[in-house]
Amino acid sequence: QVQLVQSGAEVKKPGSSVKVSCKASGGTFTNFAVNWVRQAPGQRLEWMGTIIPIFGTTNYAPEFQGRVTFTAVKSTSTAYMELYTLKSEDTAVYYCAKDVGGYYYFDPWGQGTLVTVSS
Amino acid sequence: QSALTQPASVSGSPGQSITISCTGTSSDVGNYDFVSWYQQHPGKVPKLIIYDVTKWPSGVSSRFSGSKSGNTASLTISGLQAEDEADYYCCSYADGSAYVFGTGTKVTVL
């Protein structure tokens, strides 16, 4: 059973960038996609996009297009989300979540990474 | 992509049934039978409780059930229990190989 383990909390200055990792533990990237979802304090879940690691293909939500990059390293079964030009509104918990090809739901989720943007 | 619309809060007494609606458009809920529901307790990771509109993941109570009509999906919690008090989010697959989440509903057990 694959689990997703994310990197630790980050504190960043406005205008900088952050890179969050998500490692597949207990398995490897086979036929599943890694989705990134964020949740600002007290707010709803927000889908940021998807990467299919074995192909390297990505699909970004329009709201994040041009400001985020998803990558993956197959040899270490680790996916990455890099968000640029950070603003205070980007303060949120960032989750990675797995969806299996042909199935349209997210399970399991990583434990979440809190990114705080503050001057 | 606009968020799916859910009621901000729903409440019920122990043992009662409650229903949470999730309204989208013909580009998401109305066009795909790929609606999922997630339960999130404060400070915790979202947990999948329903997928493909009506299906249960292994280990999830059958007190949770899902349905869909047109552009609106619904989650019903039967035999409400104190542990059901949490936030609930719907999510739909959408045009452009995208996903969209709902606005979220806070369930309170009176």
Structural notes for this entry:
The complex is a heterodimer of chains A (119) and B (110). By secondary structure, chain A is mainly beta. Helix content of chain A is 0%, strand content 51%. In chain A, the strands form two sheets. In chain A, strands 2-10-9-4-5-6 form a six-stranded mixed sheet, with no helix packed on it. In chain A, strand 7 and strand 8 form a beta hairpin. Chain A is globular. By secondary structure, chain B is mainly beta. Helix content of chain B is 0%, strand content 45%. Chain B contains no helices and nine strands. In chain B, strands 1, 3, 4, 7, 8 and 9 form a six-stranded mixed sheet that branches. Chain B is globular and about 40 Å long. The mean pLDDT of chain B is 97. Classes of the chains: A mainly beta (119), B mainly beta (110). Chains A and B meet through strand 5 of A and strand 3, strand 7 and strand 8 of B.
Q: Count every beta strand of chain A, where a strand is a DSSP E run of 2 or more residues.
A: 10
Mean pLDDT of chain B: 97
User: What share of residues of chain A is helical?
Assistant: under 10%
Pattern of helices and strands of chain B = EEEEEEEEE
- SSE order of chain A, one letter for each helix or strand: EEEEEEEEEE
- Largest sheet: number of strands, sense, barrel closure of chain A: 6 strands, mixed
Give the integer mean of the pLDDT values of chain A.
94
| N-to-C CA distance of chain B | 35 Å
Low-confidence stretches of chain B: none
Tell me the β content of chain A: over 45%
What pair of chains forms the biggest interface? A-B, 21 and 25 residues
Query: Unreliable stretches of chain A, pLDDT < 50, 5 or more residues?
Result: none
Total helical segments of chain A: 0
